[in-house]
Amino acid sequence: MIFFASCSFDSYADADIVEQLSSRLNRDEDQPSGNTFDICDIEAAIDSLKAGKAAGFNEIVREHIVYSHPSLIVHLKLLFNILMLHGCVPDSFGIGVVIPLVKDKSGDVSNVDNYRGITLSPIISKLFVV
After folding, report:
1. 3-state secondary structure of 98
2. Does some domain include residue 117?
3. Does the pTM exceed 0.70?
4. Phi, psi (5° rounding) for residue 19?
5. CA dihedral sign, ordered 24, 25, 26, 27
6. What is the rounded CA–CA span in Å between residue 35 and residue 78?
7. Is residue 112 part of a domain?
8. Which residue(s) pair with 118 in the sheet?
9. How far is residue 30's CA from residue 34's CA, in Å, rounded to a whole number?
10. Cα Rg of the chain (Å, integer)
11. Structural domain range at position 31
12. Which end of the chain, C or N, has fewer beta carbons within 10 A?
């Protein structure tokens, strides 16, 4: 995890994510608490994730979050608000495991063009972006 010293959203290549998070900050400027995420946002993000998907490198899946104690949602809200306040995210949010999948099982499995890659990302980073 990186510390909040010298990082910013500007260093990330995905402009869509930066735009979404910036609009979220602007939406909540009129709130005196300064929070950008609330409990309903976290719950909606959890509900939007598909069940039965493979885990990322940290071996945490959606079901771990769904069946955990409700206080986890509060902790995620606090974490996400702190990340937004400081303007950076942990390095582990950008780590993904790329898995090659065969496109056509009856085709030539030794041909590189017969594969496509999928990336398994950490569930917490998916919640943050959703």
Report:
1. strand
2. no
3. no
4. -65, -45
5. positive
6. 9
7. no
8. 99
9. 8
10. 18
11. 14-94+122-129
12. N
